[in-house]
Structures are given as structure tokens and as C-alpha cells.
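ENTRY TYPE: paired fold submission
RECORD: A
CONTENT: sequence, then C-alpha cells
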Amino acid sequence: MGLFDNFKKETRNLRISENIIYEQVADELNKGIKKEGLWLKAIENSNGLEHKVKPLYIKYRVSSIKDEIQYQDDVAENIRKKNLEINKIQRERKQDERFYNAKDKLKKYGCDIKKMHQGWIVITPHLEKERFYTWEELDNYIQLISKVDRV
């Protein structure tokens, strides 16, 4: 889908949304529901011309609904961002917990472990260095040295 197709789709969606908003305003007016503050603003800006009040009110009410929708979208986006941030922190905590558990296990066998940019380096009691890139590799190594230690 090209840029122009996206623009056409956005424009179409905007028209549909606007039509729904105008229908909502018409429904409110038919039921006698008015936002008093907006009605007063329309009266004030109609220059004393009665026939301008209703069209101005409709314009203000449509704008108000659009603002409410945008506000709700902003709140939802902020919640989404906060949730992503919380999830990231939880993942990092889980990774830290896993790292310190591995460190404790390795310590029992005289080994040390260091975090690297990617993966970890385990330093054996003989000062040999083993590099691991995945948790699976590290877990397998810990299992291996625990079996060797039992023998």
C-alpha cells in the first residue's frame, strides 16, 4: 500500500469519524441536551444574531468531541507507554534475578561470572574463561559442572 493509498484511507476514516460525531451532536440536540458552556459561547460569538447560535454551537460541540477523543487517545497512549516501561523493568528484574541465581550456583564450584555486552563470561577456579551467549548455554554449563563436582 503506497503513501497515497494510506492518505486516502486516513481521509476516508476521518470523514466517517466526523459523520459519526455530527450524528451524535444532532442526536443530543434532538433530545434537548446541550453543553451550557458551549451554548453560551455560541450566543456570545453570534453577534446577537439568533440564526447563528445553533450553527456555532454545532461547530463548538463537534470540536469539543474531537478534543475529548484526542484526550482519550492520549491517555490510552500514555497507559500503553507506561505498561511497556513496566514490562521492561519486570523483564530486567527477572534477568537480574536469573543472573544472581546463576552467580550463586557458580560460586559453589569456585567460579565467578561477569556480565558482558552480549552474554556472560564464567571464570573457573583455574582462571580459564568460558563465554556464553544464551541462558540455555549457561544453564547447561552449570549442570555440567555440578555433575562433574559430584563425581
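RECORD: B
CONTENT: sequence, then C-alpha cells
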Amino acid sequence: MVGTEPAFAEWLTEERLRRGMGPTAFARLLGVSHQSVINWTERGVQPREDQVIRVAQKLAVETVWLLQIAGHPVGQPPVPKPGPAAVAPRGLALFERGELPDEAWAELEDFAAYIRFKYRDRLKERGERVGEDGKS
């Protein structure tokens, strides 16, 4: 979305400079990409509500105030970004409708093994069995 309230872009730039940080270091602090910081501060791109909330938490500022200066209506919960539960059925539908070749299943299984391997420690904490190759 284009059209960030100038107050947000100006405040974010001032906050970054006050901390003596460049855009890349500031982006790391916020847990966003360097490009996001540039988009918000220089290109007038409006951050999503969930991003504003994360920025408020990372910089320890009042969330409602930051949402307001970022141009988001306050009083309604933010619209969450679609997660795996919303994405998975659409992905499976591609297979069911025959829009993807059968070989794509092998790629999907490899990707699932990669994800399980990448997050194996978290899965183990939840009591799930995960092999060293990411397979159960």
C-alpha cells in the first residue's frame, strides 16, 4: 500500500538516526528487510498492521500510537497474514486439479523434509520425532 502518513516515515527515520544506525542495522533490529525500511521511510509504502505492531514491540513504543501515525485504523484487530493452514489447501488443490506434474510431489516431499530439518529442534521440543535428514 502506498501512502504512509508522513508522520510514520519521519518518526521511523528519526528513531533510526537517534540510535545511530544505518538502514541495514536498523532493519536487523526490527526483524525486517533492509528494503522494507527503505520502502517505509523513503518511498511512502505503508507497512502492514502486523509489521507496525512488531516495530512497536521491538522499539518499545505504544502500539496504538504507532498504528495511528502509520495510518491504520485503531480499534480493530489487525488482519493476519495467511499462514500455512490457509496456504496448504490451495497448494494441494493444484495437485488435485492436475495443474502440477506428478514429479512435483517429490519436490514437495523434499521441501517438507528440508523444513522439518531446519526446525528440528523446535519439533523435538514439541515431542515429535525427526530424523537427522528431516524425515520422521
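NOTES ON RECORD B: Confidence is low (pLDDT under 50) at residues 1-5. Residues 122 and 128 are 9 Å apart (CA to CA).
STATUS: closed
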